[in-house]
Amino acid sequence: MSPDNNMNILKSVLILLMIIFSGCGKSNKHAVDKYHDSLNEIERAGRFSLEKKNGVTEIKIIDPWQGADGVNQVYYLMKRGSELPKGSDSSKVIFVPLKKIICMSTTYLSMISAVGEEETVTGVSGTNFVYSPVIRQNVEKGLVMDVGYEANLNKELILKISPDLIMIYGIGSESSGYLGKIKELGIKVLINADYLETDPLGRAEWIKLFGALYCKENLADSIYKSEVDQYIKLKSFIAQNIKSRPKVMLGLPFKDTWYISPGNSFISNLITDAGGEYLWMDAKSSVSMPYGIENVYLKGLKADYWLNIGTAASKNEISNVDPRLNELPCFKNDNLFNNNKRITANGGNDFWESGSLYPHLLLNDIAEILHPELFLDRELIYYKKIN
Amino acid sequence: MKTAISNKLITEHNSGRKAILILFGLFSLVVSLLILDIFLGSVTIKPSEVIKAIFNTSHSEFQTIIMKFRMPKAITALTVGVALSLSGLQMQTVFRNPMAGPYVLGISSGASLGVAFVILGFSSNITPETLSGLGNWILVVAAWAGAGAVMLLIMAISSRVKDIMTILILGIMLSGGISAIVTIMQYFSNESMLKSYVLWTMGSLGNLTANQLNVLLISVSAGMFLSLFLSKMLNALLIGENYASSIGLNVKFARTVIFICTSILAGSVTAFCGPIGFIGIAVPHIVRILFKTSDHKVLVPGTILMGGAVMLFSDIVSQLPGSESVLPVNAVTSLIGIPVVIWVILRNRKYSGSF
């Protein structure tokens, strides 16, 4: 057995351990970085690793979709113009820096902007949902095309653009299926799993992927570091100054089913760090769980604040979903805040677009809602009060 | 000769008494399931607390759960079960087809097309605010119109084509065509319209506002009372149109009345609760097996009771009592209905005698 093989076995054991431990739902959510091996330059993100060897960057996307278990997708980033080693699988090699990219989700745009590469975006799925003003201008100028969505992908347009990379989000093992034809034609496809990160800083760390793709690693590292510094500073400020932990509920019902974000999710971590108590902290799961509406209503009676209320922009819209919700104390007390302050006419929401990269702003918003006395002169960025 | 006739009369008399007994049993079943549906839910509440909540006016949190969540849901379940099963029975008799039902023949799809026109088509004028007042009636009338249009089309076809299978296949084709039109409408509509439509298609019993429940109750009661008076017509039609006209029944008139009744029943349910499958087709068969008769004077009340019972049972199962999660009620009705339908298909030869 070659040492290289040993290394691989060691790595898969480590990943397995990581999955087992993260599955245990330990409250210590930063424990994840302990299980990365030392070569890896990623601290907090649990869904990808990044290693540099002999001028080649190996990117591994770990369990790239919800429910994936032990699935790794490996890509090799090589400098543009360098030659492929003999016998290597060219479909796994991405030449960097990227000159043209198609994004199947708008959440990648803010990270591309942050490394100053907006002009490389030549295609987006759903240009109507783009919030970034620069990209929107480019859409109007015809520099960014709408490539359609999954089942209705405009394959001819993609071929015409012939991007260096299509970045997609994984929604299931079949999700890469709809791009099978595109891959067959030699266009590289990379699954971005940032939305599965439950640690807000871990999600922001995906900026390092873009650093690697655009050969701007130092810039990406410094953006990430400054984000970590600000987030941690703010978090400890909140922890030292709060006197109580207001109870928080989330979401809206779909008919008589209410999908509940589990207590180990991205948003519940933000609420905890912001000095709140999420009412479903005990629910541990990797996916949202369908709860009966009467169940949620009963618990919701205890809530002091109600956040992320679907797409609701007014109390009226909430009543229209279900008039019984008017009876909740947080509704009566006007403690309703939604994350849709920055949206496009078609419902594209900057909370998901730039919010992923700036978790300290999300944290600050939620902390300001829950503890207004600590942030007197600050205006909310992503959230707005619902009246 | 004389004894033979009196024997026959006695058996008929006996079977009539037996039917009344079964009907009474079914009625008690409906009542107990209704009570069970109120007592069981995803929140576990002690029976004593439930009774207190029903009779006590004190403002406990359980009272809201019982009076605002479970009561309306249970009443909706009962109404939906009655309406869908009755419309299924009427369609099976009119088309003389054991496989007819609102879902299978595309009547539900027709109603959904009507709803899609309201939600997706003209929604620049119809905001959610208007939908909560007069809008409920707009929605329900659109669903009636859609259901009625499909019924008319199927009726026109079935007057030319006598083959049961052909009409069934046409029903499936119609559903397919309608869902294609709806897909195109969805494709060109904006996100909020799309969302409200998709929400509607999910089908549920527990989301009706008091206003909507009133509209549903009024329409279904109207349809139900109409059906009770239609039993004679249905019996005559079941034997055959020639027979029906020979005893002086105006077949065209009878059919029209029955179709209006069916469209109101199936359309109202579809308008508020979304498409709910397989209740309409399965329940009448369960009732025929139970009563061993094809007399609509027995079948109509039997179907009303059995439909309510099956739907209440489905609702109880979908709440998964004791767990926090819930199942979509659609999935439960399909799981109950499909085995019945398969059973009917498998023994269709033996069974087709009653059609």
What does this structure look like?
The complex is a heterodimer of chains A (387) and B (355). With 387 residues, chain A is of the alpha/beta class. Chain A is 33% helix and 17% strand. Chain A folds into 3 domains: 1-38; 55-225, Nitrogenase molybdenum iron protein domain (Rossmann fold, 3-Layer(aba) Sandwich), CATH 3.40.50.1980; 242-385, Nitrogenase molybdenum iron protein domain (Rossmann fold, 3-Layer(aba) Sandwich). Chain A is built from 14 helices and 17 strands. Chain A is globular. Mean pLDDT of chain A is 85; it is low at 1-38. Chain B is mainly α and 355 residues long. Helix content of chain B is 79%, strand content 0%. Chain B is built from 15 helices and no strands. The longest helix of chain B has 38 residues, at 2-39. Mean pLDDT of chain B is 81; it is low at 1-10 and 124-133. The interface between A and B is medium-sized, with 25 and 33 residues.
List the helices and strands and how they pair.
The complex is a heterodimer of chains A (387) and B (355).
Chain A (H helix, E strand, L loop, with lengths): L2 H21 L24 E6 L2 E7 L9 E8 L13 E4 L4 E3 L5 H6 L6 E4 L8 H9 L3 E2 L8 H7 L3 E5 L10 H5 L4 E4 L7 H5 L2 H7 L3 H25 L5 E4 L2 E2 L2 E4 L5 H8 L3 E2 L10 E4 H8 L4 E3 L7 H7 L7 H4 L3 E3 L11 H4 L5 H12 L13 E2 L2
Parallel strand pairs in A: 3-4, 5-6, 5-8, 6-7, 8-9, 10-13, 10-15, 15-16
Antiparallel strand pairs in A: 1-2, 2-3, 11-12, 12-14, 16-17
Chain B lengths: L1 H38 L7 H9 L5 H34 L12 H15 L6 H5 L2 H26 L3 H24 L3 H11 L8 H30 L1 H6 L4 H23 L5 H13 L4 H23 L10 H18 L1 H4 L4
